Amino acid sequence: MFAIVNIAGQQFKVRQNQELFVHRLSGNSGDKVSFNEVLMSGTEGDIKVGGSATVTVEILDHLKGDKVIVFKKKRRKGYQKSNGHRQYLTRIRISEIA
Predict the structure, then answer these.
(1) Which of 1, 41, 74, 87, CA to CA, is 20 to 30 A from 34?
(2) Do the beta carbons of residue 31 and residue 91 sit within 8 Å?
(3) pTM of the entire predicted model
């Protein structure tokens, strides 16, 4: 069974026991969080669009993503600017799709 769910403003196609990284969620490690905004769910042959399904996830840990370097330059002007960024992420496991 799969579901397409909206988690923290992004849409993910999830299956049970799948682990994925999403934008930082509020909660501690080990907490269970449920999402009601399921856009589509079902098995490969039977698909339901919308509906009242819920996806329950378990928060595994909070971490930071890889560093992204933003480098700006204007040629022949002597302008250079470098900036770095690391995104805050949460690793989750899909517990159940109901």
Answers:
(1) 87
(2) no
(3) 0.82
